[in-house]
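Contributing new complexes? Match this layout with 6-diazenyl-5-OXO-L-norleucine.
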Amino acid sequence: MPSAETLQHVVNEAHARFKDDKSGKNADYIPYLASVPSNLFGVVIVTADGRVFSAGDVGYSFSIQSCSKVFTLAQVMQQSGEEAVLMKIGVEPTGMPFNSVTALGMHDNKAINPLVNCGAMASVSMVKAGNAAERWDKILAFQSKFAGEQLKLIDEVYKSEADTNWRNRGMASILYNNENLFCDPLEACDVYTKQCSIGVTAKQLAVMGATLANGGVNPITKERCIDAKHVPRVLAVMTMAGFYDESGQWAYRTGLPAKTGVGGGIFAVVPGRMAIVGFSPPVNEAGNSIRATKAINYINNELNLNLFGSTR
Ligand code: DON
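Output block (do not edit by hand):
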């Protein structure tokens, strides 16, 4: 494990190198996201033993968006086992955008992967709950346990996305029509929309990632969030599909499981060692934060973290 000085140094350096990078633009298909200041940029490492190294805007609460999909996947695995995820959702990367209707059509109207919108809504529908309120409460509680703090909905994000999520409602209905979504489809879509509107700071997201790095135990609260045996499966899905249609390129460059969200957050997990988070709103065509991608890539290279071996 690198020294504390080294970890703080690479975090500072990653922030300094990319803070003036103005490429990309905020996602605007969810109107609220366009209004978040584009210059926000934070970088954090949380180690598997709970130490925190940060630079920049790591206290700003942004919407977790697709990063939440990982933890609902974990929740479903914990409740129903990994075979259920494989059979009812699937784990193949789609190679297509996160909201692709084409991908759905090409795969017999099955969700395909828990980290694209269809699969994430199917995951939400598999959380055991009697009604929408209970489903939401269980998801929020599960994600909060990973963060080690009570997380909250950003109401404006939820309203903005709920007013404009026709595409997701359509895809949920198609899944349900084909028995590939397991509760009322509009309920699944609405709870999924709330899940994406959970506010997290870069630091909280890094603690969530560090919980996966630490075999499912939150390194700050010491609470077990998921059985250790499920963690490698979750990380495998992240490695294959965490960057949507750029997942291959990400794995090729970094060799690390990671997940992005259109709110500008990205977390990467180095099993047994740490989570690395970058947060900055401007995203590229695939919906991945540009500064955050560069910052994590930089830290990965500096610390030689690639899971498949040294690239030096
Ligand atoms: O359903 C959506 O489109 C958003 N709530 C989440 C998409 C997302 O974060 C894709 N990420 N890169």
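Reviewers usually confirm one structural detail per submission. For this one: The mean pLDDT is 97.
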